[in-house]
Design brief:
mainly alpha, 3-stranded antiparallel β-sheet, elongated, ubiquitin protein ligase activity
């Protein structure tokens, strides 16, 4: 009994172990089958990715061959369009040069005309002043010429009568007499012409006299004001004298009444005589006052006539001054019109020069843009090669993963992790492909934009293109100039932060103990400063 019990126990344990082993092998088989299905799916996906990569690599090789082929570049549409535009721009430049030469000649001629006009303007003022005097002399000469014509007609009639009456000898004598008289009259006319020349010289003196008369008018107006003040005072005195006369008349009447009363009351003759003498004295004083009033009235009338005469002179001088002012205004307007025409020609020359410079800069910019596009195309081709090399790496990793899948138990987890990493890498490769496609589309869009810009430059008017190019030139100049002084070009780079400045500004900064970049405030040393040669700085400056 003691022996059989342990044997029974050992048999049950062995059956349990065999059943556990069977279940473990089944699980392992299931896991292996699942891994095999997963590996088959992975292989199918890798095969598809290989085919896609082969198609893309073929396309890249075709594009690289097209880019390497110089004949294809020279025969391409954008290159032919750019060549046509360059030839057109060169023709326009030559045409503008011819226009500039023509305008320069016209400018020289205009400057000569302007100098002549200035000289003429100086002489016009004196000529206008002399014209007024000459007109008067011309009218007098016309009257004299009419008189001479009438005398000539009379003489012709007399000559005809003399021919009829007398013979040839008398006719010759009369002709000599008439010739002598005509020569005398010609001398008189020459003298009158000389007098008219003298009158022209006197016109200048009259202009000075006009200024002198203006001063006299000012003085006369002051005197007139004084005379008016005196007149007012004299009128007041006349009124006061009239009041005195009335008072004296009243006193006379009172004295006469007193005399009558005294003559009636007293009979003494002495009192009567004294009263009569006093009355006579008062009458003499009254008559003297009346004479003074009459003299004052006459002087007042004379002053009124003088004032009227002076007012007429002032009105005549004002009319003369108005005429002079109107003539000067007309001459100033003519000068202003000539100056405006001169400014217009100068502006036209400036516009033509600016258009020439802008066209030259446009040509250089187009050449630089073509160079940059070719460089970008070469860069894209090199990047595509690197991408093709990078795509072969995951293929090697997948083959390693297939070898490692044979070790099912030990490397199942690592295979799953590597599978996930491979999926991530495939996704990254797809993203890179999409990026390349987007970059390719961007390049195509930029190429179309450049093409459209070139077409717009040819189709737009010259003024709009000039303004755009001027704005671009200003921006380029601002970019090329130092960011500290905004005056000098960028000549030096700081290698720590790669910021560009002019050498004087950096030299000032190097002299300081704590050297910092003016743009980003990063410290740097003297060894971090390097010189840089920027192309076309002198041209743009």
């Amino acid at each position: 009994m003691n022996i059989s019990a342990p044997n029974g126990v050992n048999g049950s344990v062995s059956t349990d172990k065999s059943s556990d082993n069977g279940m473990g092998w089944r699980d392992l088989k299931d896991a292996v089958e699942e891994d095999q299905t997963l590996t088959a799916n992975c292989l199918f996906e890798l095969h598809e990715t290989k085919e896609d990569n082969l198609i893309l690599s073929k396309r890249l090789e075709d594009l690289q061959d097209q880019l390497k082929d110089e004949n294809y570049i020279f025969m391409s549409k954008p290159y032919t369009i750019l060549n046509d535009q360059l030839s057109h721009l060169n023709a326009e430049v030559e045409r503008h040069r011819g226009l500039v030469e023509v305008l320069q000649n016209e400018k020289d001629q205009f400057m000569q005309k302007e100098k002549e006009m200035l000289a003429k303007e100086k002489s016009v003022d004196s000529i206008k002043q002399s014209i007024t005097t000459f007109n008067a002399t011309i009218e007098g000469l016309e009257h004299e010429i009419q008189k001479l014509i009438a005398e000539k007609n009379d003489l012709e009639i007399k000559v005809e009568e003399a021919l009829q009456d007398s013979g040839k000898k008398d006719f010759k004598d009369e002709i000599h007499v008439m010739a002598a008289s005509l020569s005398k009259e010609m001398e008189l006319l020459e003298n009158q012409l000389n007098r008219s020349k003298d009158a022209a010289s006197e016109a200048l003196a009259l202009h000075e006299e006009a200024d002198y008369l203006r001063t006299l008018l000012a003085k006369k107006t002051g005197e007139q004001k004084e005379m008016s003040d005196r007149y007012n005072t004299q009128v007041a005195e006349i009124k006061s004298l009239k009041a005195l006369i009335e008072i004296l008349d009243q006193e006379k009447q009172e004295l006469q009444f007193i005399v009558d009363m005294l003559g009636k009351e007293c009979s003494e003759s002495r009192d009567v005589l004294t009263l009569k003498e006093s009355i006579r004295i008062l009458e003499d004083e009254r008559e003297g006052h009346i004479c003074e009033i009459e003299t004052i009235g006459q002087s007042y009338e004379d002053m009124q006539t003088q004032n009227q005469h002076l007012l007429q002179q002032v009105a005549d001088r004002d009319d003369f001054n108005i005429k002079l002012v109107s003539d000067s205004v007309k001459m100033k307007q003519a000068c202003g019109s000539l100056l405006s025409e001169n400014h217009m020609f100068q502006k036209q020359l400036q516009h033509v020069n600016i258009s020439l410079e802008s066209s030259k800069q446009k040509i250089t910019c187009c050449e630089e843009q073509t160079k940059t596009y070719i460089a970008q195309a070469m860069r894209t081709s090199s990047e595509n090669r690197h991408l093709a090399i990078s795509r072969e790496r995951p293929m090697l990793e997948v083959s390693d993963a297939e070898k490692e899948l044979k070790w099912l138990r030990s490397t199942s987890e690592s295979a799953e992790k590597e599978y996930e990493t491979n999926q991530k890498r495939i996704a990254e490769l797809k993203m890179e492909l999409e990026r390349e496609r987007s970059e390719r589309t961007k390049l195509d869009e930029e190429y179309e934009e450049v093409k459209n810009e070139v077409m717009e430059l040819t189709s737009e008017t010259e003024q709009t293109t000039i303004q755009k190019l001027q704005n671009e030139i200003k921006e380029c100049k601002a970019i090329l100039k130092c960011g500290v002084c905004f005056d000098r070009p960028k000549e030096v780079v700081i290698t720590k932060c790669f910021h560009l400045f002019c050498s004087p500004c950096i030299q000032r900064n190097l002299e300081i103990r704590h050297r910092k970049c003016p743009g980003c405030v990063t410290p740097f040393g003297q060894s971090d400063v390097r010189e840089v040669n920027i192309l076309n700085v002198n041209k743009t400056a």
